[in-house]
Amino acid sequence: MTPKDMFTHLGSIIASLMFVWAMFQQYFPYQLRNYIERYSQRLLGLVYPYIQIRFNEFTGERLMRSEAYSAIENYLSSNTSSQAKRLQADIVKNSESLVLSMDDQEEVADEFEGVKLWWASGKNIIKTPSLSFHPVSDEKRFYRLTFHKRHRDLILRPYLNHVLKEGKAIKVRNRQRKLYTNNGSYWSHVVFEHPATFQTLAMDPVKKKEIIDDLITFSKAEDFYTRVGRAWKRGYLLYGPPGTGKSTMIAAMANLLCYDLYDLELTAVKDNTELRKLLIETSSKSIIVIEDIDCSLDLTGQRKKKKEKVEAEEEKDSKPKVEKEEKDTRGSQVTLSGLLNFIDGLWSACGGERLIVFTTNFVEKLDPALIRKGRMDKHIELSYCRFEAFKGLAKNYLYLESHDLFLQIRKLLEETDITPADVAEHLMPKTISGDATFCLEGLIQALETKKEEARLKAEEERQKIEQSAKEEAKEQDKNHD
Fold first, then answer.
1. Helix (H) or strand (E) holding 37
2. Which domains does the chain have, with CATH numbers?
3. pTM for this structure?
4. Cβ contact 293:235 at 8 Å
5. What are the pLDDT digits (tens) for 116-173?
6. DSSP letter string over 334-382?
7. Name one GO molecular function term (predicted).
8. How many angstroms separate the Cα of 259 from the Cα of each of 195, 233, 291, 310, 444?
9. What number of other Cβ atoms are within 10 A of residue 208's Cβ?
């Protein structure tokens, strides 16, 4: 038999089978067809050892996109670029990166705990009747997972949980992060694009690593917080002189963990109820920031001193007192108790996976109840620039890891208090060529000037103390006579 005859014979067989199948579909009773199909599937199951699970894009009446489908799409996006030959590329809303997905009828393999399985994408096209000349097509996309039936328990539980969890994590990492601020009891936002990272942060490397490890440990500790019965949140108190990098560290924390930022302005909050409403509306994986907490409201000082202050004000004239009460009524009525409940009360557990960060220039002004462990769990002092922090700045700004002037700068930094912001300003290139030596010489001059100013100030203070001591001695001699 020649190849031509073979193809003719094969075509005849296929045409005959199609004719028989068409007759079967057309003339066999529905009950009989259903009976045959049901038992044919059972027979196929005896010889076909694989199980298939289908995940449709839309649930119900196509009103909502399936969260499982979205998570699978994100999970597979990391595998499709290396395996699939046909890809779809798109920028999803509120995403800052290109998302790749499998094209229709593509298949990729995956492996979990030594078990191999396969993901395939597909779509069903259903033509619906329409009054126009062109029929309307309804596309229903889906993913199909195929695996051997002996791995059923492993796939249905641990593997699918892993896929959904990882898919949601990828979505969080790829999303366009936001910076929120409050206007009364409502949040408004802009896109968060601050470039600060821990690599560019001027800080002692050992202390920096300690903070990074603490943040990463927190972000992966969901099971631990659940087991010990605590809300999944952590408080950070950043304190130190102005210009030491408190706000920059907050931006670096957000970039490290891929969290949104909520910059809470307490003076714009009417009362404790509004404060609670703002807390409820914050999302998971976020950092809630109250900067300069000692200046936000009159609620952070020692309560005893507050009481004494109130008693002293009661002795004033009634008219100024009435005016002050009217002013206070128009302002914020947030109390220390309300703020404490905001940090670690019952409502603080809403949302989960959040950091609460306070910053202050004067930590001694804060009420101990506000910064105790359990509320502000980690206290981080951001102090003046020392040599290790300077080396980080020199590397970032001038691409220098060593220089002949470093030894002189090191000695001056040990003797002089200067903020990282001031050091960074002197390391900024002042010419197009960006001469590093010129910048370092300018920093040395600034350090020597500050050192001299500090010496003169100390000398002036010493003279004042000596003068005061002399006057006190004269007064005592006079009283003795």
1. helix 30-47
2. 49-174 (no CATH), 178-381 (3.40.50.300), 387-472 (no CATH)
3. 0.71
4. no
5. 999 988 887 765 555 555 554 567 888 999 999 889 999 988 999 999 988 888 888 7
6. --HHHHHHHHHSGGGGSS-SEEEEEEES-GGGS-HHHHSTTTS-EEEE-
7. ATP hydrolysis activity
8. 14, 13, 17, 41, 39
9. 19
